[in-house]
Amino acid sequence: MKRLVYVTLLSLTLIACGASSTSTSTATSTAAVKTEVNPADYAATITEAELKTMLYTYASDEFEGRDTGEKGQKIAVEYLKNQYVEMGLASPLGDDDYFQEVPLERQKIGDASISINGEKFSSFEDLIVLTASQSEDVILDNLVYVGYGIDADNYSDYDSVDVRGKMVLAKAGEPKDDKGNYVTSGTSEETKWSSGRQSLSSKRDAAIDNGAKGLIYLDDAMFSRYAPFYKRRAQSDAPGRISLKSNTPDLLRLLINEDLAKALYPNILEDNEPKSITTSAKLNIVNASQKVSSENVVAYIEGAEKPNEIIVISAHLDHVGVDNGEVYNGADDDGSGTVAVVEIAEAFQEAVKNGHRPKRSILFLHVTGEERGLLGSRHYTDNDPIFPLENTVANLNIDMIGRTDPERKEGDRNYVYLIGSDKLSTDLHTISEEVNSKYCNVELDYTYNDENDPNRFYYRSDHYNFAKNNIPVIFYFNGTHADYHKATDTPDKIEYDLLTNRARLVFHTAWELANRDERIKVDKATE
């Protein structure tokens, strides 16, 4: 009986987020919307019934878990396209094209060999291909030795050599001073340059920053550990990791053993002085990676007064597919966010039909490959932004808003975790709070709003690719649960009243961002 009363009272609270109020004015301290428009009328078109109908379809077995590049993902993107066509939303790509192609490839271990004065060095015996964008033959007649390959503020192996467009040869480790301290830190504590995978990635970045074409890296101990593993992977039929192809070729990276390193430069162990090396070496690379076809889905509403300023509302359309015959439906992750975006779009479109087009443009962005490393959103921000990033006002990203967090022991059931709202723009955070207070009364929980949180949620969804480009973001999230990334994440477990209220909150926030007179300011930009 008490539970029934609780649910009834909660339902009344939830209805308030979408129901019309007695006043027709929408003015708040941050609002600049015409007084005859009540956004609550349009928020109310976001309903439990429609969300539930869509999600039971989108998270059904027919969609086969929506794995990136697979049949189920193709079914998903066609479904989303049809939703936008039926409601009359245009595509920013023009005509009937709602798909932004995302260039992906399934990584396979490449094969390589190096010939030096008639002696041949081969994959897994002497070298490992870590990254290669394409198959090619490379004459190593312009090789530059860069010692340890370090490029720090107080010590650089790149100061005296020009490596632009060239292959560089570097070795593991970091030199020490006369007191036995590492040169970059002045202490006995290892740095990011000293050893291991972090050292390799730091030296990779240094080579990229200095314009090198490729890095040949000597780490005999690491090679001995990696070679058997890479060989097994190359010989197996297991699917490789899916990655995003950049607009520019990846840095060619080879890990080599000591025998090959000495063949390239006999004094490599003793000499730390950077210099050009004369060799007669020939490198043959075979890239075994396979193209993966995938796409983002995009639709938009053009703004009436400031069409070049863009609000992006996003969710990822993919999930993890099928495993051992079980479909991973991904109802919460991220079917809930996906159908919320569609419903939000429909609410804005209803306003347009009634003569209330938003001042700014709104892009509804469904990204692929989130589960594979935020690939679709990274393609949008890093490779092919449909609208210039400098014109992008904010990104509201929705990833899992249909459930509750069982670890959250205190607070209202009617909550949502907000992440990132105050990181780049005070305006955005203030608007978010004020809109919620006026229309929705959701408990805004900032538990995970911390870049140093061990869960790293700030970095784990698609908003991050916007945030890293100094675009203000809000990530809406209900937290993980026992069904996270399991076949049991099914639509019958979604709490549709909460899903509805959270979707309406995003709508109201987007409405305010799109219709206020002044664009929000970015007052906390990072370098």
What do these coordinates show?
Strand 2 (about 110-115) and strand 3 form a beta hairpin. The chain has helices at about 1-15, 40-45, 50-60, 70-85, 195-210, 220-235, 260-265, 330-355, 375-385, 425-440, 465, 495-515, and strands spanning about 100-105, 110-115, 120, 125-130, 135-140, 145, 165-170, 215-220, 240-245, 250-255, 275, 280-285, 290-300, 305-315, 320-325, 325, 360-365, 390-400, 415-420, 445, 475. It is an alpha/beta fold. The protein has 12 helices and 21 strands. The protein has a 9-stranded mixed beta sheet, sandwiched between helices. It has a 6-stranded mixed beta sheet with strand order 4-10-8-7-6-11. It has a 4-stranded antiparallel beta sheet with strand order 3-2-12-5, covered by helices on one side. It is about 30% helix and about 20% strand.
